[in-house]
Amino acid sequence: MGLQHGIKEVLDLNVLDFATKKPLFYVDYATATSNENQAERLDLTGGRGNAKQMSFDHSRTSTFQVTVPLVDLKMIALLAGEEVVEGAADMLKREVLVVSNASTAPEVTLSEAPVGDVQVFQLEGLRDNGETLEVTSVAEKVVTLTTPVPDGAEVVVYYQYKTPVTSKKVSIKSTKFPKAVEIYGTGLARNQEDEQDYPCHVHVRKARPQANFTFTMSGTEATNLEITFDVYEVKDQNGDGQYIDYIFEG
Questions:
Q1: Which residues have C-beta within 8 Å of that of residue 215, sequence separation ≥ 6?
Q2: Are residues 250 and 183 part of one domain?
Q3: Which of 5, 72, 154, 222 has the fewest CB atoms within 10 Å of its CB?
Q4: What is the C-alpha to C-alpha distance for residues 236 and 243, in angstroms, rounded to an integer?
Q5: Is residue 188 part of a domain?
Q6: What is the CATH number of the domain that holds 109?
Q7: For the chain, how many structural domains are there in total?
Q8: Residue 52 forms part of a structural domain
Q9: Per-residue pLDDT at 243
């Protein structure tokens, strides 16, 4: 079989914990994967004109880049050096509600059960807080006001509520950083000789995501994550330092 291949597909990736070999997550939705390799060259020059005589290569480095259009919480957790935590959390909610005077005092009904204090303001304009309105009582989701407010008037309400127990949380902490992983990638390569597609593989033996990353939420573009892994040497059975293996079937 010939050694010339055409490659047009992105890799599907299995990312494993380097220490335990436990699978962390699977990526079959990347838009691009790439491997950049660099090295330094020390030139020896001399003689008339100080021409190059010979050189030594050293300090080879390798990085592996992945671009993904979907946000995987386990991937974010890896970048943060944290775990995905499941459970309820207290969050702030702002609502614009309509006052009802159907009972003896003005009332508004919240969409969630509040935790702690509830603050109510008259609505000014489209979104601004006006006069503070005094709260008499809070019974489950019903807030009763002491301050007289006309029936049908709009008010702004702020309160904390608990998210569902199935909520997922990833935290960015000042003392946590990414851990080492092992990456197996599988794609397709078309051999020029028989025009058939064969699996091709990339094995990143040891890598760590760079701690710098940007998580953008935009109103005009979908969120893309660009992750760069620094690749580290692992000795093979012959004692050679390995970064990445490329395996072509067929």
A1: 76, 223, 225
A2: yes
A3: 222
A4: 10
A5: yes
A6: 2.60.40
A7: 2
A8: no
A9: 94
